C-alpha cells in the first residue's frame, strides 16, 4: 500500500527516528488507523527515497514504542488498541538494566519487611494449629464452615454487610467474587451499568462473559443519581455494578447521603446491584455499604487484598436470599472451591485482630504517601482520598496523558493513563493515575514524584513518540 508520510517527517535528527515519529503523528491525525497494514520495508524506502536499512530501523523503533507490531509472515501493522490497553496495563513493566524503574502503575498496598515477618509467624503458628479440613476438604464448595462463620461475623460487625452465614461464599479474591455475582444474574447480551471510568477487571469480564457494559456519568462522589436513573430508563439494564468506596482510578467515594440517593434509584427500578467494596478497609468506619440499604437485591463483594498484604487473595461474596443455589454451581465450575489454606490464614488473622491492625497500618502508610504526593505535586490538580492507593492527576495543556506516560517511562517511572478504565470509546480525560503503594521505599517514591513534577511543569518535547 502507498502511505505518504512526507508531511509529517521532521528534518531534525536521524532519518529513522523522523520516520518513526511521522508514523505516530499520522496515527494521531487519523491518516493511519489501528489495525492498518504498513508497506513493506522496500516499498516505504522507495516512496521516501531512503535505504531499506533506514526503514527497518524506523519500524524497529516504532515497535519498541508500542506503535506497531511485526507479525511473522504477515508484515508490520499499526497496533490495534482494542483490548490492548488492558493487556499493556496488566503487563509487568520491563525493568531497566539497573532495576531502577519505579512502578507507580499497578494497584498495590504497601508491603514492608514487617508484613513478611508477620506472614512467616502466622504460617509457623498454622503449622501447629491449622484445622484438619484445610488439607482434607473436598465438598464444602462455599468454604469451610468455621471460616465462613468468622467471615460472617466480621462482615456484619466491621463492614455492615447484612446477611447470614448461609449467604456468605468464600472466593479466590474480589475479581472472582465479582465474576460469580455477575454470572449469577446476567446473561450473554444483557446490559450492565457501571461508572464511566471503572476498574479494568470489570471491563475484561464484559468481554469474557459477553454482556454489554455501559458507563454512567460520575463526579467526585462517584455515580450521579440522576444520571443513573436516566441510564436505567434508557438501557433497561439487568444489573448495576458500582464501587462506592475509592473508585478505581479516580478515588471517588460516596458519602452516606449520596449512597441513600443511589439506593432509592435502584430500589425504584428493581435492578440488581453488584457492589464492589474491595477498598472498604482503607476507609475508617462510618460509611455503610449500598448493600445494607438493598439487602434483597444486592450482591456484596470484598476482599483483604488491598488493605493487608497483596498476596492474601481472600475474597468474600455475600449473596441475596434465594440466589445461593444459582451462585454455587458457578463457583464449582470456575474453581471448585476457594483455596482453604489462604482462608485459614485469613481466619487466624481475623480471630486475633491482625486484619484490623494491618488495615489501620495501611491507612497510615498511605496517608503518609498521599501527604508526600501533595507536597511534591503542589500547584497541580490532584484528586485523592487521605488513605487511598491512588492519586488522580490532571495534566495542564499541552500535555496529553499518553505523552506523559511515555516520557515518564523514558526517565524510569511507570504510570497509568485513563485508557484502561474507559467503559466506552469516549475521549479519555487528560489525567494519569499514580499508585502509591507498590514502591516500598519512600525515597524512591519521592524521586519519582519529583520527576513527574518536573515533567508536568515543562512543555512536552515536540513530536514525542506516543504509545498507542
From TrEMBL:
Residues 13-81 form the HTH gntR-type domain. Keywords: Aminotransferase, DNA-binding, Pyridoxal phosphate, Transcription, Transcription regulation, Transferase. Gene3D superfamilies: Aspartate Aminotransferase, domain 1, Type I PLP-dependent aspartate aminotransferase-like (Major domain), Winged helix-like DNA-binding domain superfamily/Winged helix DNA-binding domain. It comes from the Bacteria. InterPro entries: Aminotransferase_I/II_large, HTH_trans_reg/aminotransferase, PyrdxlP-dep_Trfase, PyrdxlP-dep_Trfase_major, PyrdxlP-dep_Trfase_small, Tscrpt_reg_HTH_GntR, WH-like_DNA-bd_sf, WH_DNA-bd_sf. It holds the Pfam family Aminotran_1_2. The keyword Transcription regulation applies. PROSITE patterns: HTH_GNTR. In the C-terminal section; belongs to the class-I pyridoxal-phosphate-dependent aminotransferase family. This is PLP-dependent aminotransferase family protein. The lineage of its organism: Bacteria, Pseudomonadati, Pseudomonadota, Gammaproteobacteria, Oceanospirillales.
Amino acid at each position: 500500500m502507498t502511505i505518504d508520510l512526507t508531511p509529517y517527517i521532521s528534518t531534525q535528527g536521524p532519518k529513522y527516528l523522523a520516520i518513526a515519529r511521522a508514523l505516530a503523528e499520522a496515527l494521531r491525525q487519523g491518516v493511519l488507523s489501528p489495525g492498518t497494514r504498513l508497506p513493506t520495508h522496500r516499498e516505504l524506502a522507495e516512496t521516501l527515497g531512503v535505504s531499506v536499512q533506514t526503514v527497518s530501523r524506523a519500524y524497529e523503533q516504532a515497535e519498541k514504542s508500542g506503535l506497531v507490531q511485526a507479525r511473522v509472515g504477515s508484515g508490520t501493522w499499526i497496533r490495534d488498541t482494542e483490548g490492548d490497553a488492558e493487556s499493556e496495563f496488566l503487563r509487568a513493566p520491563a525493568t531497566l538494566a539497573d532495576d531502577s524503574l519505579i512502578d507507580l502503575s499497578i494497584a498495590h498496598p504497601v508491603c514492608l519487611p514487617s508484613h513478611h515477618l508477620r506472614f512467616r509467624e502466622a504460617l509457623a503458628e498454622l503449622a501447629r494449629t491449622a484445622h484438619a479440613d484445610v488439607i482434607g476438604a473436598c465438598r464444602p464448595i462455599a468454604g469451610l464452615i468455621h471460616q465462613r462463620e468468622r467471615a460472617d461475623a466480621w462482615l456484619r460487625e466491621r463492614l455492615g454487610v447484612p446477611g447470614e452465614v448461609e449467604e456468605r461464599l468464600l472466593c479466590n479474591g474480589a475479581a472472582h467474587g465479582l465474576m460469580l455475582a455477575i454470572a449469577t444474574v446476567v446473561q450473554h447480551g444483557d446490559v450492565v451499568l457501571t461508572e464511566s471510568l471503572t476498574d479494568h477487571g470489570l471491563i475484561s469480564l464484559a468481554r469474557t462473559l459477553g454482556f454489554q457494559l455501559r458507563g454512567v456519568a460520575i463526579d467526585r462522589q462517584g455515580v450521579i443519581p440522576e444520571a443513573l436513573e436516566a441510564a436505567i430508563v434508557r438501557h433497561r439494564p439487568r444489573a448495576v455494578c458500582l464501587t462506592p468506596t475509592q473508585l478505581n482510578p479516580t478515588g471517588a467515594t460516596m458519602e452516606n447521603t449520596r449512597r441513600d440517593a443511589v439506593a432509592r434509584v435502584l430500589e425504584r427500578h428493581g435492578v440488581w446491584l453488584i457492589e464492589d467494596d474491595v477498598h472498604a478497609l482503607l476507609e475508617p468506619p462510618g460509611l455503610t455499604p449500598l448493600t445494607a440499604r438493598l439487602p434483597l437485591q444486592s450482591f456484596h463483594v470484598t476482599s483483604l487484598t488491598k488493605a493487608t498484604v497483596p498476596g492474601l487473595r481472600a475474597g468474600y461474596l455475600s449473596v441475596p436470599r434465594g440466589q445461593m443455589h444459582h451462585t454455587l454451581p458457578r463457583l464449582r465450575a470456575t474453581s471448585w472451591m476457594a483455596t482453604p489454606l489462604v482462608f485459614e490464614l485469613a481466619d487466624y488473622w481475623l480471630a486475633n485482630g491482625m486484619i484490623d491492625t494491618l488495615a489501620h497500618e495501611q491507612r497510615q502508610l498511605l496517608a503518609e504517601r498521599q501527604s508526600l504526593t501533595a507536597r511534591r505535586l503542589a500547584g497541580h490538580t490532584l484528586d485523592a482520598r487521605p488513605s487511598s492507593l491512588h492519586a488522580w492527576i490532571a495534566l495542564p495543556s499541552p500535555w496529553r496523558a499518553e505523552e506523559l506516560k511515555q516520557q515518564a517511562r523514558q526517565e524510569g517511572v511507570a504510570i497509568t493513563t485513563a485508557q484502561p478504565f474507559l467503559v466506552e470509546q469516549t475521549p479519555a480525560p487528560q489525567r494519569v493515575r499514580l499508585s502509591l503503594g507498590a514502591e516500598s521505599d519512600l525515597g524512591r517514591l519521592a524521586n519519582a514524584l519529583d520527576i513527574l513534577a518536573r515533567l508536568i511543569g515543562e512543555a512536552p518535547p515536540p513530536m514525542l513518540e506516543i504509545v498507542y
